[in-house]
Automatic annotation (TrEMBL):
<dbReference type="InterPro" id="IPR004360">
    <property type="entry name" value="Glyas_Fos-R_dOase_dom"/>
</dbReference>
<feature type="region of interest" description="Disordered">
    <location>
        <begin position="1"/>
        <end position="21"/>
    </location>
</feature>
<feature type="domain" description="VOC">
    <location>
        <begin position="21"/>
        <end position="145"/>
    </location>
</feature>
<keyword id="KW-0223">Dioxygenase</keyword>
<dbReference type="GO" id="GO:0051213">
    <property type="term" value="F:dioxygenase activity"/>
</dbReference>
<protein>
    <submittedName>
        <fullName>Catechol 2,3-dioxygenase</fullName>
    </submittedName>
</protein>
<dbReference type="InterPro" id="IPR029068">
    <property type="entry name" value="Glyas_Bleomycin-R_OHBP_Dase"/>
</dbReference>
<dbReference type="Pfam" id="PF00903">
    <property type="entry name" value="Glyoxalase"/>
</dbReference>
<keyword id="KW-0560">Oxidoreductase</keyword>
<dbReference type="InterPro" id="IPR052537">
    <property type="entry name" value="Extradiol_RC_dioxygenase"/>
</dbReference>
<dbReference type="InterPro" id="IPR037523">
    <property type="entry name" value="VOC_core"/>
</dbReference>
Length: 203
């Protein structure tokens, strides 16, 4: 019987197109005031461009820098914010993960408390995360890596950790799998000390 499990590898696939990174992600927002208050004033993303939505000039297009030059944008209008979680399903967006500085993890968690923002904290094995919702109920993950992994080698590290965890018979990638992958690949790294948290795993 043939094994239909897809190969997990950082090697480029034999495909006609190869993307070079994420340029921006666009979400449909509610109104300008609430969107700026959450993404600029709470999460600290500079508002770098504001212009009409070129497909619908009756709405405004807001561009925020997420911290590394990657952009998240919102189409906003004169709509009330709605904190009920949006409907999921095929074609929907489950959540957006944003990187945060591991040295500021506790400070960021306290800022969410100060802003009366509900959140859940989980140790996900290979990273550590806070989950919260924006003013429209959209799920955001504020995530930090447990190891200092160069961005250009992250895919290689994760693919190697995948092989190691499969060889170990583990259900999901664990901290020790990533550390073993970094050592196998000869990548120098620092390990980040983060608070204890529930595993966030159903296994």
């Amino acid at each position: 019987m043939a094994d239909d499990t897809p190969d997990v590898t950082a090697d480029l696939p034999d495909s006609p197109i190869h993307t070079t990174g994420t340029d921006h992600i666009t979400l449909v927002g509610s109104n300008e005031e609430d969107t700026i208050e959450f993404y600029r004033d709470l999460l600290g993303m500079p508002l770098v461009l504001r212009q009409p939505n070129l497909d619908d000039p009756s709405s405004t297009h807001l561009f925020f820098d997420t911290g590394d030059g990657r952009i998240i944008t919102f189409f906003v209008g004169d709509r009330p914010s709605n904190q009920q979680p949006p409907r999921g399903g095929v074609g929907g967006v489950h959540h957006l993960a944003l990187s945060i500085d591991p040295e500021r993890f506790v400070e960021i968690r306290e800022a969410l408390d100060d802003a009366d923002r509900h959140y859940n904290e989980f140790d996900r094995g290979i990273f550590h995360s806070l989950y919260t919702r924006d003013h429209n109920g959209f799920l955001l993950e504020l995530s930090t890596d447990k190891f200092s992994i160069p961005d250009e080698r992250k895919g290689e590290v994760l693919a190697t950790a995948q092989r190691i965890r499969e060889e170990a018979g583990a259900d999901f990638a664990r901290e020790e799998d990533v550390e073993a992958a970094l050592n196998e690949l000869g990548i120098e790294y620092d390990k980040v000390e983060l608070p204890d948290a529930p595993s966030g795993s159903k296994f």
